[in-house]
């Protein structure tokens, strides 16, 4: 079992989110900043579109040869003194990590930001076994204090306002002066820095994710702006890298291509502040760095996506651009999606990982506006993949019965043009007559969803085909 | 079946391969061996003064500061001045880098400490392996010469880089790493650093000095 | 491919224009005829997009085959909709990946199908229209036309030639209006929030008229604006370009005295 999902309640989640004034205010921060910054960064680099092609091709090539690159990577990690563990699913990954922590005699574990660690629910597992996990990315730290999931893959606390963070800090940091001023965001940052600095120095094990794994050298790569990932991995005696199988890339040159699109797509930076390439444990002459280096490689359903339409989703480099540009995400935020991965990438990935029977709403809750695909650095056709999920649902009769029967009735007429003309002529005539006074309907029995939030404009009356026949073809046809 | 074997079997089943196909193995071996370059932005493909100028501009874009000195002998005075100008104490931690050690620190009033940081240092200096003009990035390699902790724990981090080590692009740095460490081998850590630590996690407002250095200062040595 | 001197154009009316607002179809006919085309509108129903986006590939394929056959004999197929033209151009071919015969026919139809304003500008080289419209308008870029077909400059170029018309750009004109076909009904709360943002941007532009190239989006935005009591008039861009604005705007009652 992975983290509990509320994806089946997507509609209720969404309605709650829409009525949450605090959340709506916070979401205002997503709508402009990320979009403008990405656009400026893309405009500044003439090769940006060519790099997106290059990034897509590298990922495709790697996925097609994933078994061999994984073997090469594994061999390199071992020869540099590290350990590689394979986990079929979340439970196996949790057990492997727990046993490494136990072996290290760990009391506290610091953590760099890792979506995979959210996916496997490692924090609760460590806590249940007497080990304290401490999230160190500022956003992750905040949501850990609140016992929440991240609402965005690169800005986990984007759903919160500073006043909420202040309340959490006052509630948890009780050792500090109750009268201290925390009215400015920078004061919150400074407090978190001081509190977490002690945690960094005391930690026995550090767990990070990986943005990429390099087969050529056995290197794991993390990308951060805060530097928390680095303090997580160089200070404790043991560093655990938690990564999924699709993070592999062949060479340092390949990863350089991907790095050129990652930060630009995510935050609009040329490069994130810290891009760290780690290979094995500390060397004999080193003065610092971890003595033990473990990599836990998680499958959790991904190997079954290879060779299917959803293989393209495994190109994802987790930049967050798709959700930054998504009108549905802007409206409801990340928590409504009900599991670890929100937005368009979540709408495609979540059904693969927890089942379309649970996450069926996600690929349906899209207008197919296509803005996500237009900004994806590895050109994942997200709307097409959401449509594939809708097709699977339709085939498996998971589509709601009302929708199915409506489609069936409509399809019956649409496939019979002559009958369609007669039926629509009658229907539109009647509808136009009913709507002639106001030109629109405030309520329509067959379109309650529509008229709940907006009027339904009345038709003009005669259909085009009726009038065309009358005016252009005579009455004969 | 072990988890490892199971995962590999599943990958191969999904891809419709056995893993023993010679052609696939050759394709993979060839790519790992040749490490072909992809699209290299033209921006960094400049040399000499132009490259150094681009590097400095990009360092400043990343919200770090940068200064230039004519020779290694001028570095201590330059750093002492930087610390004084920012009202910072005259202390400095460094590793065993022979280039740094050879500099005339005794000419300054700086109190020098050596070795990795334990988290209480205000100022540290490291010597970069190289610079990358394309993005204003410093490439740091771990080792006793420049312990990784110095890159992250002090409040103010100063990085010295030789002008001759400033490359146009990332790929050129990888070539030098391969030359220094051998093809397929890496130092324990390579840090690409592009500006001082920051976070946008509170209301998407950019704040400097999250967990790493609040200030990053770069000294380019021209000799 | 050279454009024939009198190209035969099959008008893909689109089901929404056919049923809800035939005047848009006749505006398209007028624009095409003025540009020298011979226009015909064969018997038709729907491009199949509602079924396609609901995951019903079988029905979609049946409707695609129906459309492919109906539009075989024309030099071009033109739709007053980026969404339906996009369906034919970008998605019909992939429906027949395993059927080379139909795939070839779908490719042929896709190649000759165009959205109305991009057909006029990009294919026929039309630079101006003979129409006048007093006042300011703002233009919403519908998603499929914009991102599947690259329709952005073409309607603006033609609007610039309409006498008396000024175009005022609204904020986020290229952001979805929240229609999304069945999405508007299935996820009405979310759709309502998205169209709410759009309506506020429309109003902030202070243009008294809103135009777009897709009737689905227009009905959504018009329905929201009228629900909110906004006086903004909503029309399909073809009506203005053809100088056919005597019909009441979308969602407005016909004034019996007017005709």
UniProtKB/TrEMBL annotation, chain A:
Keyword terms, alphabetized: 4Fe-4S, Iron, Iron-sulfur, Metal-binding
One Pfam assignment: Fer4_8
Domain 4Fe-4S ferredoxin-type, first and last residues per copy: 307-337
InterPro entries recorded: 4Fe4S_Fe-S-bd (IPR017896), 4Fe4S_Fe_S_CS (IPR017900), FTHF_cligase-like_sf (IPR024185), LUD_dom (IPR003741), LutB/LldF (IPR004452), LutB_C (IPR024569), NagB/RpiA_transferase-like (IPR037171)
Cross-referenced NCBIfam families: LutB/LldF family L-lactate oxidation iron-sulfur protein (TIGR00273)
Protein name per UniProt: Iron-sulfur cluster-binding protein
UniProt source species: Microvirga arsenatis
UniProtKB/TrEMBL annotation, chain B:
Pfam families membership: LUD_dom
Gene3D superfamilies (alphabetical): NagB/RpiA/CoA transferase-like
Domain LUD: 126-221
Listed transmembrane segments: none
InterPro entries documented for this protein: FTHF_cligase-like_sf, LUD_dom, NagB/RpiA_transferase-like
Protein name, entry field: Lactate utilization protein
Organism for this UniProt entry: Microvirga arsenatis
Lineage per the UniProt record: Bacteria, Pseudomonadati, Pseudomonadota, Alphaproteobacteria, Hyphomicrobiales
Automatic annotation (TrEMBL), chain C:
The organism's taxonomic lineage, starting at the top: Bacteria, Pseudomonadati, Pseudomonadota, Alphaproteobacteria, Hyphomicrobiales
Superkingdom: Bacteria
Domain Cysteine-rich: 9-89, 137-221
Protein's recorded name: (Fe-S)-binding protein
A Pfam family recorded for this sequence: CCG
Organism from which the protein derives: Microvirga arsenatis
PANTHER family reported in the protein's UniProt record: LACTATE UTILIZATION PROTEIN A, UNCHARACTERIZED PROTEIN YKGE
